[in-house]
Amino acid sequence: MADPGDAEYERALEALSGLISGKQRKDSGMWAHAFEMMASYLERLGLDAELPKLSIIHVAGTKGKGSTCAMVERMLRQAGYRTGLFTSPHLVDVRERIRINGEPVDKESFLRNLWWCFDTLAEKAGDDSGKPAYFRFLTMLGLKVFLEKKVDVVILEVGLGGRLDATNCVRQPVVCGVSSLGFDHMEVLGHTLPEIAREKAGIFKTGVPAFTVPQREDAAATLRERAAAVGAPLAVVRPWEAYQGASAVRLGLAGDHQKLNAALALALAGTWEGTAPVAAAVGGEAAARRAAEVAAGRLPPEYVAGLEAASWPGRGQIIHDIVEPAAAGAAAAGQPEGAAAAAALEQQQEGQHVQPQPRLSFFLDGAHTAESMETCAHWFADAIDQQPAAAAAPATAGSTAQQQQQQQPIPSAQQQGSADLVTQRVLLFNCMQERDPQKLLAPLAATLAERQVSIQHALFVPPDSTYMKLGASGEPPNLSWQHSLRSVWDSHAGGSSSSGSAALANGAARSCSSAAATAGRAAVALPPLPAVPSPGAAAAGAAPAAGLTTAAAGAARSAVLPNLAVTLDWLRRCVREAPSLRMQVLVTGSLYLVGDLLKHLQSEGSGGCGGSGKA
User: Fold this and answer.
1) 465 marked as part of a ligand binding site
2) Residue 48 annotated as part of some ligand binding site
3) I need a surface site. Which of 144, 146, 272, 405 has the fewest CB within 10 A?
């Protein structure tokens, strides 16, 4: 019997989906009018008079603003404050956007406040006011929840831009921050970096301290100009490396680029503790001490603990989906799956130490700008270097576990038998059609080549969800966009878009053969991919492709797959049917894609090795 609460929650998601307008963001006039309407909506909800009760840290930027907010929240929670965190987009559940003490707001509070906002707006609607669009409604809902929960501090991430963003309804934050700037949403924000910087600087307020990280000089000049115009004291943050003891801190968020975000987070947290009345009331002398330490270039212990514990799903995140015991020693190498399992079991019974090895690992990063794709590629290269050396042929019998990590490598005790597993690297990619795939895939391919990271297989897969509706779209995907992405990748990675089924079926196996030969191992044959015809082949009535495209020797093989369930099933079949294979999958280009993959993995719990889950 279905849970009535689930039905109520689904009804709420349908109501929220009805607020998604589908209008193009490039309509700047509509964007400005919608922002002007925020004051009316807040007044109808009675929130305009209540907002001054919230103590707010407001953060804009192109890259790293979400990570910065996550670090600020974790540091202040570690320092003893009750925190509210508002971010976007969500990955799995819309309640992720509104967090209390790091956890998504509970369903009961979410539903109660959602229906109150809906009903109140409807009761007091004027002839010309209409309904707020999706993000604006969620912004007001988040503020309402934070007021109800009586949080000490709200960390508020800008959705898009700054000047006309719904979050800019906040008129008196305690401190503002601008993370790294780059080119994104140019149809709304402008086509030059100074134009984009001007929009981001729209969150600056008179007398409110503001911080930014080092920027390109033309963008930095614009930030300084706008700060001076409104009377906001603006400073560039102290470099992370300049803090005493920073080299000994292991940030919870992966990648060297997070040091820049950590430096901004420190400035924001320290300034809030040294400025906000609630910080003095709740934190007392400890708050003043921490603020003084940050100002002097020292790291408060509470902040260090928060930075090391910070997590931000879908950004620099590693999930080991299939982790299995490895039969120690080369004797099990090349054995059939059952024989390898028996060898591992026999060694366990004899008291020998058998270490588990990750054989299917997902490296998740929702990068979706040219600059962030380069950063993602560097992170992936560093992350795979931290993974354990391949061990003896693993077994599929026995327990499995889905293990998640943001940065921590598997302990070095597992680094045994370096030549017994063949490693294959897979790109799993999609991006929204409003983005230029050339500007995403070209820097990704170039940076991976620069770091000497080879991609054996590139898979282009639509997400289950759509920005037009919460949850799965329910419509069969049109794969023409994914075929276009594949062609762009092939042009940069040396692949081919030929669709001959024999070439497709043999390409993947040959990719494994070369890697296996290097390791002195027998070739590893992969199962064929499900048939997905190319647009041209489908129009001509040709037989659909049966596997991965092959091109020149050593080139990456590429394919379009119909959905994530099929993709996940194929990847799991690969490692199950080839005991000597390890697959490392980089998932990037879209937070929708990353979030939907997380739904699949989470729906199956810690078992990890079962069939494909349902989103």
Assistant:
1) no
2) no
3) 405
